[in-house]
Amino acid sequence: MERLGAFIADPQAVVDLRRYFGIGLPPGTVPLTGSRFEHLAGGGDCPEVADRITAEDLIAVQTLSVTVPAPVALDILEGRLGARLSGLLQAIPRDIDMVDADAVVVADGSPSDRAWSLLCEQYGLSWVIAGKVLARKRPRLLPVYDRVVRCAVGRPPSFWLALHAALREDDAALHRRLLELRQVAGVPETVSALRVCDVAVWMNHRALGHACP
Questions:
Q1: Domain for residue 101, yes or no?
Q2: Fewer CB within a 10 Å sphere, N or C end of the chain?
Q3: How far apart are CA 124 and CA 149, in angstroms?
Q4: How far apart, in whole angstroms, are the C-alpha atoms of residue 82 and residue 73?
Q5: How does pLDDT run across 133-165, given as a tens digit for each residue?
Q6: Which of 179, 151, 149 is nearest to 34 (CA)?
Q7: Does residue 104 form part of some domain?
Q8: Between these two residues, 28 and 76, which has the higher pLDDT value?
Q9: What mean pLDDT comes out for the span 26-45?
């Protein structure tokens, strides 16, 4: 995780964020589809739907180039899996940033971890897809994490806990830099600090030629 600060401090981060979210692009240039991830249908954490996974959430996940398999998607929307996830979501804080949450909120055995394990271990989703589903529902608390980001920052035993610790170091210096980066790039405040971090790292490392498994 020690490499994370370098990605955020790189001047390219502002350029990448503007490109990703379609800010100040030349006519005819379109933003990346992932720019709609947090905003589609008002967001996955808006009060009306915060504690249940909707069809719009599953479409939002597709903007990040992954798809929940149809049998699992149907179970989420109409079956027992959806009910179980809803129960866990009710126990996961909605209006808090990762930096302000206690570590226990993202630790092993927490409702967040149990929701992730339910999707991965009992229903066979990849860790990437499960993480993106949960990040859609709790964008301020749970980060998007995929193979490109893992390649860039390493493989700690728990990415959530490692990121939580990094955000809180030095009086939350990294979190404050992410907020400053968001402001300089002109990214809306509805995009969380975690998402700013993910996009900055993902865009930079992908451009460098990510080749990690």
A1: yes
A2: C
A3: 22
A4: 9
A5: 999 999 999 999 999 999 999 899 999 999 999
A6: 149
A7: yes
A8: 76
A9: 94
Tokens of 11: 């001047």
Q: Are 100 and 94 in contact (CB under 8 A)?
A: no
Beta-carbon contacts of 15 under 8 Å, excluding residues fewer than 6 positions away, are none
Residue 211 within a domain: no
pLDDT at 66 over 80: yes
Predicted confidence at residue 30, as pLDDT, reads 87
Other CB atoms within 10 A of residue 189 CB: 9
8 A C-beta contact, residue 53 and residue 45: no
Alpha carbon distance 13, 49 (integer Å): 32
Number of Cβ within a 10 Å radius of residue 147: 13
Could you tell me the residue range of the domain that residue 195 belongs to?
4-205
Output the pTM of the full model. 0.95
Q: Would you place residue 209 in the very low, low, confident or very high pLDDT band (cuts 50, 70, 90)?
A: low
Looking at the structure of the chain, the number of domains it has is: 1
Report d(CA 65, CA 165) in Å as an integer.
28
Tokens of 43: 């967001």
Question: Does 213 reside within a domain?
Answer: no
Residues in CB range of 207: below 8 A, 6 or more apart: 16
* pLDDT of 212 strictly over 90: no
How far is 132 from 124, CA to CA, in rounded Å?
14
